[in-house]
Records
---
Amino acid sequence: MLRIGVLALQGAFAEHETMLDRIGVEHFQIRQKSDLDVPMDGLIVPGGESTAIGKLMNDLDMTESLRERIMDGLLVFGTCAGMILLAKEVENDSRRFLQVMDIGVKRNAYGRQLGSFFTHDDFAGKRIPMTFIRAPYIERAGEGVEVLSVVDGHIVAARERNMLVTSFHPELTDDTSVHSYFIEQMVRKA
Ligand code: GLN
């Protein structure tokens, strides 16, 4: 039986738990460093405010352990702020967080006020609904990064080895495709 840890420090973690329930995958919340000792087959880093989540991760002394686990191959899926937390580079902010994925992202890339929108576009070849909320997008993708979605010329979903990121929030729609992709194409194949 698979078990996915959901980082539950701030932001939209409950919605990811609902998605995992819908596709029949067990999960538990990660709220403190000791929760990282619970055996897990994958990790979800939710959207929210990357600076708030990043600060809590540092204050709770979780950053280094998480970085090591991901570098060791822990399957991880980051949405929105989660993408920023995983990125090696943030083009328009001096703060850096886990720095594990070879991408450069731009925070609040669509502007602060008009930065939220809904669209349908392709993710890994399938058309799905996409909700963007003050989202980042990927400005630079390293050689080992597979692009999974491009919306209006900007990369908004990508994978590098054990790491999957989306600018949009699949957990805020009815469509379970991205969560299923993470579980079926990544976690179960690991
Ligand atoms: N704008 C947020 C940030 O920079 C991300 C927004 C989100 O996760 N919905 O962290």
---
Amino acid sequence: MSKLESVVKEIAEEMRARPDRGEVATYIPELAGVDAGQFGIAVVDAAGNVAAGGDCDTSFLIQSISKVFTLTLALGKVGDRLWKRVGREPSGSPFNSIVQLENERGIPRNPFINAGAIAVTDVILSGHQPREALGEILQFVRFLADDPSIVIDEAVAASEQRTGFRNRALANYMKAFGVLENPVDYTLGVYFHHCAIAMTCRQLAMAGRFLALSGMNPATGHRIVHAERARRINALMLTCGHYDGSGEFAYLVGLPGKSGVGGGILVVAPGKASIVVWSPGLDVSGNSHLGRIALETLTKRMGWSVFGA
Ligand code: GLU
């Protein structure tokens, strides 16, 4: 057994035994009903070896992790012009904050808070029907994971639409400042649906490989983005990927990552591995409680922090 395999196995066992789980998100019934006792981990190294453990083959809602893929697509579509509509600074505010948007005249702080991700979705939507834009996002995720079986959970998307009053407020606010080009309902429809993509740790770790490997997906031999763009997306994940818990995550884990309220975290160890952990119980900032602890343990034992061993 390789060192990575034994570390992943140890972590899966240690996490299973822990009594502290955090609190599952409760804003929609589909998340409130998820068993907080689950924990999964999958690591794909640079050579394509996979080390996985726990509930690594159980599907979960990727939620805000989808924002990494939509950012990649939007940059591919409009390049650096994207930065006229969304900033690149950490927010220090909760993921759905409205106050900051008002102070900054409708320009969201970064592409990973809700307002920023809605603006990014609007960029992908321009020139298309919502169905086409959504199809493009789903195809991209399937292509990256090299897995056509990945789907959107329609019941979750419908729940998000029913309860997404705050996101609607953010979107209307941006529309008032001319930051959104498309009808608010269209943009939000696409946003709610891409948050409802369901994937396993293993599928998501495969999809994240291009960020760990300078923009290449070695499984398919495809260049997804230029090395420089991969590096920049990673920089944004490091500084903004965990909402107002981003500084703490960088301090404790030391790797670029993006979390979602479904309890997943996609993390990149540049040149080394793409890593996904999932445990539905969240901490106060909305990031997976056990997921963060598992990643802290993994980077320590593997010496993978970007800040040194
Ligand atoms: N669909 C969720 C929302 O927009 C995603 C939140 C998240 O994962 O942070 O509220």
